[in-house]
Amino acid sequence: MLFTDMDKDQLMTLKSELDAKFEECKSKALSLNMSRGKPAPDQVAVSFPVLDEIGAKSDLCAEDGTDCTNYGGLDGIPEARKLFADILDTDPEHVMVMGNSSLNIMFDQVARGFTHGYFGNKPWHNYVKVKFLCPVPGYDRHFLVTQHFGIEMVNIPMTSDGPDMDIVEQLVSSDETVKGLWCVPKYSNPTGITFSENTVKRLAALKPAAPDFRIFYDNAYCMHDLYDDAPVLPDILKLCEAAGNPDMVFEFASTSKITFPGAGIAAIAASEGNLKEIKNHLKIQTIGHDKLNQLRHARYFKNADGVREHMKKHADYIRPKFEVVLEGLEAELAGTGVGNWTRPLGGYFISFETLPGCAGRVYEICKEAGVVLTGAGATYPYGKDPQDSNLRIAPTYPSVDELKQATYVFALAVKLATVEKLLK
Ligand SMILES: Cc1ncc(COP(=O)(O)O)c(C=O)c1O
């Protein structure tokens, strides 16, 4: 029965039952965590052979003869550029491979817009106010980077096809202070949705009022399919070029969740003009990234098909974890009307929408019962979810057994928080 159809007596009876179950949960002194968007140690271990790919006795030169044991090579070694070009369905000339973190490259790109400006345009620090469009719910670290520079964040609702493009088009074309748009186009963090082809085409065809507007296209989960019939995204760089906007997009990716989080390799794909400008900054910033790691990855995977094969091993670990959470939510919450949740086909997260005003309370109840969730509000700019309704579930790190228990507690917390709210 829908909780919202219950009268006060029914809600009171239900509350006593839920309270009893909650006390039982607390007595188990659980210590579970569904907040960590990272692979579990046994899953990380599938990448250990990558470490054996090169050793002191191997030939440690890249295919163009670059000595990977020494300084230099700001673009990344050719075979690593080819690997990311294959992954992102673009050309190696549009790719630079850098260090261990794509978030670091994103931060640098925002910083460069702020301190130096792009293509001779006024640096953003000279404006009274600049804005970034932030599809919500979204990735908390994108929002933290933007907030760090004092950039005003504008919430854009997410639809099942991607950001609401009517609003994006209207704001981008009418407001010269809108300088950026964050996107996670495939298996978005946290909703798990993939942008439709039409959304990507509309993004590429934007007509920005600001000449230095950029789409920050964070393709972090481009290879992270859980099932065979995976969605395919068109190449946004090509679409931007065709639409007369060759410089409007920075695309980011890394192997953080392909090999080693924090110890993989990361890349940016962009127009040659953008890459030239980035290189001008980079040559002041570093004498070169870790080319040995680039070599190790490029030799191990060889091409995107090599990565796809490897990702099937990851999927075998992760799929049962997503499924146990989704089955638990279905079993406990179907037909109650207390919330909606996404059923992603890849990526790292499930997004849950409670009734308005319940998410913070669900977080607290879970915590009391020993289940840690990502903080309510974290998926919104400034940590403020206007509806207090979104929660991000990260099922990859705990074991299947732990997830079963944690999902039960989570569902119980959602029911309890909803009953409390309806009784108020
Ligand atoms: C959408 C998204 N982008 C980037 C990152 C971090 O990537 P990296 O490890 O390459 O810095 C994450 C990690 O959770 C993420 O979810």
Write the layout of secondary structure elements.
Blueprint: H1 8-27, E1 32-33, H2 41-44, H3 48-51, H4 78-88, E2 95-97, H5 102-115, E3 131-136, H6 140-148, E4 152-159, E5 162-163, H7 165-174, E6 178-183, H8 197-204, E7 214-218, H9 236-242, E8 249-254, E9 266-269, H10 272-285, H11 291-301, H12 304-333, E10 339-341, E11 350-354, H13 359-368, E12 371-372, E13 390-393, H14 400-423
The protein binds pyridoxal-5'-phosphate.
Structure description:
It is a single chain. The protein is an alpha/beta fold and 424 residues long. It has two domains: 3-43 and 311-423, Aspartate Aminotransferase, domain 1 (Alpha-Beta Complex); 61-302, Aspartate Aminotransferase, domain 2 (3-Layer(aba) Sandwich), CATH 3.40.640.10. The chain has 14 helices and 13 strands. It has helices spanning 8-27, 41-44, 48-51, 78-88, 102-115, 140-148, 165-174, 197-204, 236-242, 272-285, 291-301, 304-333, 359-368, 400-423; strands at residues 32-33, 95-97, 131-136, 152-159, 162-163, 178-183, 214-218, 249-254, 266-269, 339-341, 350-354, 371-372, 390-393. An eight-stranded mixed beta sheet has the order 2-9-8-7-6-3-4-5, with helices on both faces. Strands 10-11-13 form a three-stranded antiparallel beta sheet, with helices on one face. Helix 5 (102-115) packs parallel to helix 6, helix 8 crosses helix 9 (236-242) and helix 13 crosses helix 14. The longest helix has 30 residues, at 304-333. The chain is globular. The two termini are 20 Å apart. The model has no long low-confidence stretch (mean pLDDT 97). Bound molecules: pyridoxal-5'-phosphate. Residues 37, 101-103, 139, 184, 189, 218, 220, 254, 256, 261, 266 line the site of pyridoxal-5'-phosphate.
